[in-house]
Design goal:
By secondary structure, the protein is an alpha+beta fold. Helices cover 61% and strands 14% of the residues. It is built from four helices and eight strands. Strand 7 and strand 8 form a beta hairpin. Helix 3 runs antiparallel to helix 4. The protein is elongated and about 170 Å long.
């Protein structure tokens, strides 16, 4: 009830459309949101500065599934799922779909491949549910339109389809805080060793993470290179096919004596050529995107090399600290030995002093007795 009340009273209801009190979030995740550039239709334009909540919503009154995301008070995604939509995974962490109603293409960048796969599964699931809902709605309209047609003498009645409604609140994830107990500080002699060990463990973890990322980047780079080669081969094949079709058009124009038939074949071949040119354009865009991914992989490789160099410097410093610690331990041991020798000497002096005091005491007693006798 609190979610419904929040949707109903939200100031975002001033956006296009109205909130539906029966619209409920059924799945949410976080991702970076992009839209295709409306001018070039090639590059991605980020619509959110950071990862935002992207949710699937279901309106039970209209039997409609939607994908909605908000960045503050701005609705950056408001897409109604239709049976003819397709969600495409273009990489391990990126997916996209086209919305003909919004006349745009949405792209989502996820933090892991698992989140992308889960979102794609939900998209396919709700797309199938939307298809079934559409078929049931058509069956109901056919059943209701049949008696109307008989009574109205064959007049057709077209059902009204409800417009998509916009906007919803994104789910907010509360921040979790953990209480950490204070740890006792190490002693003065053990401080350099503890500090160097912590630094070494930290950089070892960083190195392990970098090795894993390097393996993933290497695999992605190999896959991108193979895809580029495959697209180039397909591009060459399409170019050969286009040249063959051009030659075929020329031959048909020269050989055929029937102008109408030649014109018809020419039109069909020209359409085929246009389709092939559009396909070539799409493949070229894919090649450019793969080149960008390769450049990004190279940048990450340079970052990995820089961190590896820093790790080597830290290891050298760690060895220096270990040498200093060893020197301090030797000096401490030598100081302890000197203190022990000093204690032994002091103990000997005390024993000698006790003997002297005892002798002086006896001498005093003897002198006192002599005075008494005299």
């Amino acid at each position: 009830m609190e979610i419904k009340r929040m949707f109903w009273n939200s100031p975002r209801s001033k956006l296009k459309g109205t909130w539906s009190c029966w619209e409920q979030p059924i799945f949410s995740t976080r991702a970076h949101v992009f839209q295709i550039d409306p001018n070039t239709k090639k590059n991605w334009v980020p619509t959110s500065k950071h990862a935002v909540t992207v949710s699937y919503f279901y309106d039970s009154t209209r039997n409609v599934y939607r994908i909605i995301s908000l960045d503050g008070s701005k609705a950056i995604i408001n897409s109604t799922i239709t049976p003819n939509m397709t969600f495409t995974k273009t990489s391990q962490k990126f997916g996209q779909w086209a919305d003909s109603r919004a006349n745009t293409v949405y792209g989502l960048g996820f933090s892991s491949e698992h989140h992308l796969s889960k979102f794609a599964e939900k998209f396919q699931e709700f797309k199938e549910a939307a298809r079934l809902a559409k078929e049931k709605s058509q069956e109901k309209m056919e059943l209701t339109s049949t008696p109307s047609q008989e009574s109205a003498g064959g007049d057709l009645q077209s059902p009204l389809t409800p417009e998509s409604i916009n906007g919803t609140d994104d789910e907010r994830t509360p921040d979790l805080t953990q209480n950490s107990e204070p740890r006792p500080e190490p002693t003065q002699n053990a401080l350099p060793f503890t500090h160097s060990s912590a630094i070494s463990k930290h950089w070892e973890a960083e190195l392990a993470t970098l090795k894993g990322n390097n393996a993933k980047l290497t695999a992605a780079l190999l896959e991108s290179t193979a895809n580029v080669k495959q697209w180039k081969q397909q591009l060459a094949a399409y170019q050969e096919e286009a040249e063959r079709l051009h030659k075929r058009v020329t031959e048909l124009e020269c050989v055929s004596s029937q102008a109408n038939a030649v014109h018809t074949h020419k039109t069909e071949l020209n359409q085929t050529i246009q389709e092939l040119e559009e396909t070539l354009k799409v493949k070229e865009e894919e090649i450019e995107r793969l080149k960008q991914e390769i450049d990004n992989a190279r940048e990450l490789q340079e970052q990995r090399d820089s961190l590896t160099q820093k790790l080597q410097e830290v290891e050298i410093r760690n060895k220096d600290l270990e040498g200093q610690l060893s020197d301090l331990e030797q000096r401490l041991e030598k100081s302890q030995n000197e203190q022990e020798a000093f204690r032994n000497n002091l103990k000997t002096l005390l024993e000698i002093l006790d003997g002297k005091i005892f002798e002086l005491t006896e001498l005093r007693d003897n002198l006192a007795k002599l005075l008494e006798r005299s």
